[in-house]
Amino acid sequence: MMYPVIRKLQQKRVVLASASPRRQEILSQAGLRFEVVPSRFKEKLNKASFPTPHAYAIETAKQKALDVARRMHQKDLRAPDIIIGADTIVTIEGLILEKPVDKQDAYRMLSRLNGKEHSVFTGVAIIHCFSQDGQLDVEISQFYEETVVMFSQLSEELLWEYIHSGEPMDKAGGYGIQALGGMLVESIHGDFLNVVGFPLNHFCKKLAELYFPLGAVGLQPVKHDSIPTVDTFENLSEEEGAGLDDGGAQAQGTQDTGHDRTAKNLPPFPTGLLELISGFQASKALFTACKLKVFDLLQREAPLKAVDIASKIATSERGTGRLLDVCVALGLLQQTERGYSNSDLAALYLLSDGEFSLRGFIELNDKHTWAAFTHLESAIREGSSRDHRAVGDKAGGLLQDSCPGRDARLCFMRAKHGLAKLTARQVATALDLSRFSSACHLGGCTGALALELAREYPRLKVTVFDLPEVIEHVTCFQSSGPHTEQVSFVPGDFFKDSLPEADLYVLSGILHDWPDKKVHRLLSRISGSCKPGGGLLVAEVALDEDPRAARPGLLRSLSRLLQTQGGERSLAKSRQLLQLHGFTDVQVARTRDVLTVVLGTRPAT
């Protein structure tokens, strides 16, 4: 098979859009003659916007090849016949690992892989270029290959010895299987060369499809009057190129009576759109597994077979098996011959008593947000949810209207506590607050952020000011230990009651619950209480100018339409609000997650 396929390319000008010596060696040994033009594409695609890891790898490979096509065409007014782009990634439990940035990063990667099974994906794009009258047309074929790799259980000493060799630094996942990194690998299932960096066997099969088609198989032409710059290629996985079926193969045409149904006339297969349409099913599967306490059970007794899990949680074996398999596919569980067990992701975030548990947030979404979104159409038509048009003046409008009753209130507090535990450290360290000796966290709920501020600034005294019905339950969330004596709790309503005195006032995840009128009222009260030289720290999800990057904030803003009268605001709007209420010298810092932290200072008299 391979010789006629490679021979087919001998008379064509072929370019490899990669500086990888490993890819060059693999293709050279196969007898392919090619030039090397490294891509300058900056691998900045948003991984979270792709439905699968392999979709991200394919898109990155395509962007690398398109970058070279554009540059060569601009330089010579003629592009080569074929450009090959490739991108290799390592994934474990839904996380994508690329090349480590330093030795510590390499250690984190290898520690995560140690003693576990992971997948290596290589996405490949084959671009045929055509130049006519100074214009560039391209036809794209793309595919991916997956190889499953099992790491041995290795000592920390051995891992560091390998890291100090320098080999991990230019390799996805922090190891090279073809050299010293081979000693880390216990077994592989799939194409060895794919782990090295290029799936030669699949590449040759793809060439055979293109040059020796069985039936009506063709490339999908992607035409450009002039090829766009790289920055315009960030979300093309569903807009351009060969359609992908569920296995990543090129969509093939069929012949209908009286109609030309070749691949050229078929639209791209909408993989991402189908994932979006059915995305709620994955959420509900997660919610159900949490409600049935599957993850808690497996933390105590794993591994367990489906029949044993069903018996222990009083469910059907048939339904339980299907739910468990979905959780495996979502990266929440692992499955071996011995049974099911929690993934690292589940062990960290999905246990009822975990330090960083998100169970409260999951419960809130399942019981309240899910129900609220069933009224989205009417809220869009009318501009607000009927249930929340009359949010009153009380500071707990969202708490009281969305979560009436003790159990619902505790659910809300657990959700806030879980999210605060994830973000508190980043908020507390985003900007230098060392000049303040006292702080008041308005709407501080369980005090998670207050405690983190106290840890970071040992001389800082922090007051948590929240509704009486919140303060009465904070003991359920408090932990003993150092710095807790720096935090105190005071009941009150920040819209009505006098605010505690402080050098610094803190609002985290509060302003988005309220419309502009209420926000101005609250900021005016804070400004009136703030001493000269005092400050206001605001942490919110700020809307980005790029709608794709702003996706988390935009979805939250839609949720606010249903559950409050508020919404997310842009960074410029947040800055303007602080300045309007007398806070100057506004500083801004973005955390590693979606939060933006803004600090304003009252001018000294």
Structure notes:
The protein is of the alpha/beta class. 39% of the residues lie in helices and 19% in strands. It is built from 22 helices and 18 strands. It has helices at residues 2-8, 21-29, 53-76, 103-113, 156-164, 192-196, 200-211, 271-277, 279-291, 294-301, 306-313, 317-329, 344-349, 359-373, 376-382, 397-402, 406-429, 448-456, 468-471, 516-529, 551-563, 571-580, and strands at 14-16, 35-36, 82-92, 95-97, 117-132, 135-151, 185-189, 220-223, 333-336, 339-342, 438-442, 461-466, 487-491, 504-508, 535-543, 569-570, 584-590, 595-601. Strands 1, 2, 3, 4, 5, 6, 7 and 8 form an 8-stranded mixed sheet that branches. Strands 11, 12, 13, 14, 15, 16, 17 and 18 form an 8-stranded mixed sheet that branches. A hairpin with a 2-residue loop joins strand 5 (117-132) and strand 6. Helix 11 (306-313) packs across helix 12. The longest helix has 24 residues, at 53-76. The model is unreliable at 215-263, 388-403 and 545-549 (pLDDT under 50).
Arithmetic mean pLDDT: 79
Main structural class:
alpha/beta
Q: What is the assembly state of the chains in this entry?
A: single chain
DSSP summary: helix tally? 22
State Rg: 28 Å
Terminal residue distance: 83 Å
Main sheet characteristics: 8 strands, mixed
